[in-house]
Every structure is written in structure tokens, then in C-alpha cells.
Design a protein that fits this description.
alpha+beta; Alpha-Beta Plaits; four-stranded antiparallel sheet; 25% strand; rod-shaped
């Protein structure tokens, strides 16, 4: 029975020597967020059915604008909607710019918006930092 106090004392001494050398558990990383500017492309109240050739030419200019925004790194992704309950919602673009005003200024340069066929709704969308990556979108300079 005399061994128990000796073993306890030995265990305490070993733990006292080893514990300070063990690394402390690191604090979990702080959850951070980052923002993007979400642009909804909506059918404008001034929308009208255009002759096919005119509609195709305007659509080509629209796609060229979106391509230029993507190549500049200011827009990271864009695309049309389908199967939506409200056909006024035509598509969305996600801009990597500082403010909704910056995104609106860029989106309103789209020829299809200038022609009055579409209008834009802009809002800031916050997401967990690093959760969304766009490897094909260059970073704006």
C-alpha cells in the first residue's frame, strides 16, 4: 500500500514536467466573410419583342459585354435563369467590386440594359471567405 502514494507523486512529477512542453491547442480560425455584388437582370418595363435579327444582334452585344466584364476580373460568373416562376427574372451576374454602386455602373453599361430590354437589381451578398472560388476568373487590377 505504500507504493500508491509514491506512484501518485511520481505521476504528478512527470505530468508537471511534460505538460508545459506540450503545445497548447490553437484557437479555431476566426470565421471571416467576404462580399460580392449580386446583379439580377430583370425584364424591364420597357421590354418589347424585337425582330429576330435585331434581338440576335443585341444578344451578341450583351454577351460581348459580359465577356469583357469577366476578362477584366470585375465579374466572376454570369448566366441566365430557366424554369423560374417569374419570367421577369432573366439572369444573374456576380461582380467582385467594392460597392453595389460600382456593380450597377458596370451592369448599366450592358447594351441590353441601355436598350431598355433589361433592368438591374443590385445587392451585396456576403459569403464565408474562401467558400466560393472562381479559378477561371482573373483578379481585377
Amino acid at each position: 500500500m505504500r507504493r500508491a502514494p509514491i506512484l501518485v507523486a511520481l505521476l504528478v512529477a512527470v505530468l508537471a514536467a511534460v505538460l508545459p512542453a506540450l503545445p497548447l491547442a490553437a484557437d479555431p480560425p476566426k470565421f471571416e466573410m467576404e462580399s460580392y455584388q449580386l446583379v439580377l437582370l430583370m425584364r424591364a418595363p420597357t421590354w418589347q419583342k424585337l425582330p429576330q435579327a435585331e434581338a440576335e444582334a443585341l444578344q451578341a452585344k450583351h454577351i460581348a459585354h459580359l465577356t469583357a466584364m469577366g476578362e477584366s476580373g470585375k465579374m466572376v460568373i454570369a448566366g441566365p435563369f430557366s424554369n423560374q416562376a417569374d419570367p421577369a427574372y432573366r439572369g444573374a451576374c456576380l461582380y467582385r467590386v467594392a460597392t453595389p454602386e460600382d456593380a450597377r455602373a458596370l451592369a448599366e453599361q450592358d447594351p441590353i440594359v441601355k436598350a431598355g430590354q433589361l433592368r438591374v437589381e443590385v445587392m451585396t451578398w456576403w459569403v464565408g471567405k474562401g467558400y466560393m472560388t472562381f479559378p477561371r476568373a482573373p483578379v481585377a487590377k
